Amino acid sequence: MSNPNTTITPEGYHVLTNDTHISRWVEEHKSLVCDPYLFKWLLPKLQGVERIWDVGAFIGDHTAAYLTIPGIKKVHAFEPHQDSYYCLEKNFGGRDDCSCWNIAVSDTRERLGFESAPNAGASRLKETGKSSITSFALDDFMEGTAAPDFIKIDVEGWEPRALRGMRKTIEAKRPMVFVEINAGALKDNGFSADDVFGFFEELKYTGRKPYPENATPDQAQYDILFIP
Asked: Where are the alpha helices (DSSP H) in the chain?
């Protein structure tokens, strides 16, 4: 079944027609891996990683990069936005090394409001959202599957709750975790960057590498790799 909010690029990638950012970058770069500077920095740090959780996978711009890691066995990609998930599944569905899940990642199983945005990658869980999606704690949802060596989380301010829902897995496996820090989105959900940092301090993670490398904790938005 086709989706009127999506299109296929000449290279065969499914993207959103109503997205102002990543879908347009995919078209410009002619590749799903449309942030080459980030992955030039990140991928060398992931050599030897075999299993990944891509939490907030969008249309698969990170998933595509992770699947290029030599020896990768499985990427589980989680995306709540319906149109983005449609593209994600079209881009990677049917592969043995990738499974796509249309769920929200949180610390409880419940129906949560969801709000779309013109920058579709910034769509997010929100109490007043016009649509809704079922959320799961990944400790429960992924029980019985092999634990990840690396987790990427970009869920637009819902990171503290997503992390709480996978705490047992992180405690047991101690993967590297790459987290977006978006001060505005965190504040809208009643959190701050301190909630993310505090989570990893409690688990005795000792390493932090920000991206960009010159990012400082007071910046409005950046990413950070937590290393056990």
From this structure: 22-29, 36-42, 61-66, 82-92, 138-141, 159-164, 167-173, 183-188, 193-202
Please name the amino acid found at residue 205.
Answer: Y
Residues 6+ apart with CB under 8 A from 200: 177, 226
pTM of the shown model: 0.95
Q: Which domains does the chain possess?
A: 35-106+137-227 (3.40.50.150)
SS3 36: helix
Answer whether residue 145 shows pLDDT above 80.
yes
- Per-residue pLDDT, 1: 67
In the prediction, which pLDDT does 228 show?
96
CB atoms near residue 147 (< 10 Å): 16
Tokens 């301190």, located at residue: 194
Q: Which of 226, 140, 177, 161 is nearest to 52 (CA)?
A: 177
Dihedral (C-alpha) 26, 31, 33, 37: value to the nearest 10 degrees?
-80
Residue 65 pLDDT: 98
CA distance 47 to 37: 17
For 94-106, b/e burial (b = at least 16 CB within 10 A) is: eeeebebbbbbbb
Q: 221 with 228: CB under 8 angstroms?
A: no
Helices (H) and strands (E) in the chain, counts: 9, 13
d(C-alpha 7, C-alpha 13), whole Å: 8
